[in-house]
Each structure stands twice: as structure tokens, then as C-alpha cells.
Design a protein that fits this description.
Shape: globular
Distance between the termini: 20 Å
CATH class: Mainly Alpha
Number of domains: 1
CATH architecture: Up-down Bundle
Structural class: mainly alpha
Number of strands: 0
Helix content: over 70%
Number of helices: 16
Order of helices and strands: HHHHHHHHHHHHHHHH
Radius of gyration: 20 Å
Strand content: under 5%
Largest sheet: none
Length: 395
């Protein structure tokens, strides 16, 4: 059993970090960029919906290639398609608002292909002994990137007139994606699996299967993230009318996240996952409440800092426990691709449900109070995840 990260783990972390960096530089402000051209929450909701739909379907369809062929090719293809998306964003400019669905689908395909390959390789280069450590480092690197990327982007956008700053950061993201592709060639080719079983995710939902606990937990996680992932930065911009403030917000919250993920990776213990996830889920539910009192930069900052502080307690035990299910025995390990697909489709269902609820409610009551009350409701989803997984965590 491995207890530390070997060279392949470190390389995979670096490739992942470059992919996340490119997304942090541009993705942080992508919805703000859309908002500048058309102030329409419903449009942005449909953009997020198309992305998440494409991610989930890509996981399922591309699973056959990832299992039966070269995973590294898929990993690189995901980075390349993500770069192509930003190239088209650069080319379309203000016309982007007319191509929400095709651009959202392209973005989702790139992300879906990359994360599918990454999750499979991540499973293969780690084991139960170092999986929490790896996840902790993923969080640490993501936090460092969250400090540097959005802050730099916000500054560039603020000092450059019009949308020139956006064009610069989109271009920089293209360069970073290119660096990720080049570095990925140092990752070893992984062993190919046997035939891909299209309906294996369905078979895993039979009575008595631990996946009947893991799937609802993943759906609940997606229910919250589907809306929060695109809404928070946009609300910060709406509250302040400043990309620089958005960058500062990300810097502060990511700095807190850096410390909390580092501490979680160092001190979280497998035997305490049940309690750790409960504390994290409960606190993440509470921190949404200040937004109901008043939506301002300060209440959003309280929410962001609280999320950054308690997210590791919630997410690391859940992710590690779900991936542990994939390695329980030889049969499960052989179907790791299908099980990763099951996990992602579960989260996609949750994300699509959350976004659909948002679009439906806001269309009927187009007020900021509608958004804030919905966020308060969806903010309780982590508790639903814990309730679904509590027996699995205690095992």
C-alpha cells in the first residue's frame, strides 16, 4: 500500500493544476463576460445547463474509449477541446450570446473528456492509503490557483478598456492549456481494460449495493453545485460592478481554502469520515443564511469564506469513500471506468435538476429574492449527501 505520492501522482497533479489554472483565469469571469453583453439570468442558466448535460453524456459515451483504448489521448483531447472553446469565445465576442447552446456543449465535452480520463488515471495511480492525501493536494493546488488566477484576471480586466482584458486572459488560457498537453506526454500509458459495459451503471443500483447510497449522495452534491458554481461570482459582480472585486473575492476565499485543504489533507482520518462529513455538511448549510438577510459583498464574502473553510470536511470524505468503492475487489476495479461514469452521471442529474429548478422559479418570479431563497434551499443539499452516505462512511 502506498502512503505517499509517487512521481506519476505528482505529474498528474501538475497536469490537473494547469487545466484548473486555465479555467480559473477565464472561467471565473466567463459568466460576467456574458452578463456584460446581455443581463439575463435565464440565458446564463441555460448556458450552465448545456455544459452540465454535455459533461454527463460525454462521460458515458467516451467511457468506452477510455476503458478500451489509450487514456492519455483522451486526457489530451479534453484539454485541446477546452482550448478550442476559448478560441471560439474570442472569435465570437458579443455574438456569443446567440450561441449559448453550441458553445456550452463544446465546453462541456472538453471538460467531460478531461475529467473522465483524469478520474480514471487518478484511481489507478492512488490507493486507499494515499487517496485522502492526493485529494488534499488537489484542493491545495486548486486553492493556490484560485488565489493567483482570478486575482490576476480581475486586475487585467480592470486596467484594460472595454473587453480587451477578457481577450488577453482568454488568450493566456489557451497558452496554459497548451502547456498541459505537452506535460501530459510524461505520464505513462495506462493498461487498457476489457470491454466497456454500457449498462453497468444501471446494474450497480441493485438492492443491497453500496452504490444505492453513493448515487443519491452524488446527486445531492450536484443539486447544490449546479447553481452555486455559476451564480456566486456573478452575484459578486452584480453587487460591486467590479471585476477587480471579483478577483479579490476569489483571492480571499481561495486563501482560506488553501489552509483548510492543507489541514484536511494532513489530519483527516479514514476512521473519522462519518463525523467530518457531518460537521462539514452542517456548517455549509448554515453559511448560506446571511445571504437571506442582505445580499452584499460582505455577506457574499462571509458565505465564500465559510464554504472554503468547511468544504474539505464535506467533500474529501465523500470523494474518497466513493472511489474506495471502486477498488473493493478485482471485479470492481475492472469496472472502474463504468463506476466513474456512474458517479459523474449522478452528479449531472443533480446539477441539471438544480439548474432546471432555478430557471423554472426565476422565469415565474424574476426577482433577486427568488434566487437567494433558492440558494438557501439548495444550500442544505450537503446534509442530504451525508444522510445518504452515513452508513457507508461508518463502515
Amino acid at each position: 500500500m502506498k502512503s505517499a505520492l509517487d512521481q506519476q501522482c505528482k505529474l498528474l497533479l501538475t497536469v490537473n493544476s494547469l487545466f484548473v489554472l486555465a479555467g480559473a483565469l477565464s472561467g471565473t469571469f466567463l459568466n460576467v463576460y456574458l452578463w456584460k453583453f446581455k443581463q439575463d439570468f435565464t440565458m446564463i442558466g441555460w448556458f450552465a445547463f448545456s455544459q452540465q448535460l454535455a459533461i454527463g453524456l460525454t462521460f458515458w459515451i467516451a467511457g468506452k474509449w477510455v476503458k478500451e483504448r489509450d487514456k492519455m489521448i483522451i486526457l489530451r483531447l479534453g484539454i485541446i477541446i477546452s482550448g478550442l472553446f476559448y478560441l471560439l469565445v474570442l472569435a465570437s465576442g458579443a455574438r456569443m450570446v446567440h450561441y449559448i447552446w453550441p458553445l456550452g456543449i463544446l465546453s462541456g465535452i472538453g471538460a467531460g473528456i478531461f475529467w473522465l480520463a483524469f478520474n480514471v488515471v487518478y484511481f489507478e495511480v492512488t490507493d486507499k492509503a494515499n487517496r485522502d492525501l492526493f485529494n488534499g493536494w488537489v484542493g491545495v493546488m486548486g486553492s493556490v490557483i484560485g488565489i493567483i488566477g482570478p486575482w490576476l484576471s480581475g486586475w487585467l480586466i480592470s486596467v484594460m478598456p472595454g473587453v480587451r482584458g477578457y481577450r488577453v486572459i482568454f488568450t493566456v488560457s489557451l497558452i496554459v492549456y497548451g502547456g498541459g498537453v505537452l506535460l501530459s506526454f510524461r505520464l505513462k500509458k495506462r493498461e487498457r481494460g476489457k470491454g466497456y459495459r454500457w449498462l453497468e451503471p444501471v446494474r450497480r443500483l441493485k438492492p443491497g449495493s453500496p452504490w444505492r447510497q453513493a448515487v443519491p449522495a452524488s446527486i445531492a452534491y450536484g443539486l447544490r453545485e449546479g447553481v452555486f458554481i455559476f451564480m456566486i461570482n456573478l452575484l459578486v459582480y452584480i453587487s460591486t460592478s467590479s471585476e477587480w472585486k471579483v478577483g479579490q473575492y476569489m483571492l480571499i476565499t481561495s486563501l482560506v481554502s488553501l489552509v483548510s485543504y492543507w489541514a484536511a489533507g494532513k489530519w483527516l482520518a479514514i476512521r473519522h469520515r462519518w463525523l467530518e462529513m457531518l460537521i462539514g455538511a452542517f456548517m455549509m448549510t448554515l453559511i448560506v443564511i446571511p445571504l437571506l438577510w442582505k445580499m452584499s459583498y460582505m455577506t457574499l464574502l462571509i458565505f465564500g469564506v465559510g464554504t472554503s473553510l468547511f468544504m474539505p470536511l464535506y467533500i474529501i470524505p465523500m470523494i474518497s469513500s466513493v472511489f474506495d468503492l471502486m477498488g473493493r475487489d478485482k471485479t470492481d476495479a475492472e469496472h472502474r471506468v463504468e463506476l466513474i461514469v456512474l458517479r459523474e452521471i449522478s452528479m449531472m442529474v443533480g446539477r441539471l435538476a438544480g439548474i432546471a429548478i432555478f430557471i423554472w422559479l426565476y422565469t415565474r418570479s424574476p426577482h433577486m429574492s427568488t434566487i437567494l431563497w433558492l440558494m438557501a434551499g439548495l444550500g442544505a443539499a450537503p446534509l442530504m449527501s451525508w444522510l445518504a452516505m452515513r452508513k457507508l462512511l461508518a463502515a
